[in-house]
Amino acid sequence: MSKELDKIIDNLETVFRGDAWHxxxxxxxxxxxxxxxxxxxxxxxxxxxAELVYHLVAWRKFIIQKLDDKIHYTLESEEDxxxxxxxxxxxxxxxxxxxFKDTQKELVDLLEDQNDELLNxxxxxxxxxxxxxxxxxxxxxxxxxxxxxxxWE
Length: 153
Hints:
Layout: H1 3-17, H2 26-32, H3 49-67, H4 78-82, H5 93-112, H6 117-120, H7 130-152
């Protein structure tokens, strides 16, 4: 039985899809954005909304690779972490959203095949365990959701 992991999966899905206590979920926010703003830089921000979304995708890919014991997988390059100009363009917005949905589904499917023992397992090649990584991802998503909100407003 996976009582703690089930709660983490539920939180991952709530922040991603909806019914979050803090307001709109990531998808609710992204679905309400006009496409014309997704690749625009604001004077005070180094990143665009599309780059932030790619960054959320990148961390899902990171966890998926670590669940597959890929010890050397990293997000060291700018492109690995924030995407290419083509990937984060307004013209590619719908594809990026689909990639985000697909990596979320893949991650949740993989986690549903695990049990609570995973949470105490060290992430391959890292100094922290999967509990810290997965709960940190919920915090990370919420943090970047706030950044997206600020960039849009």
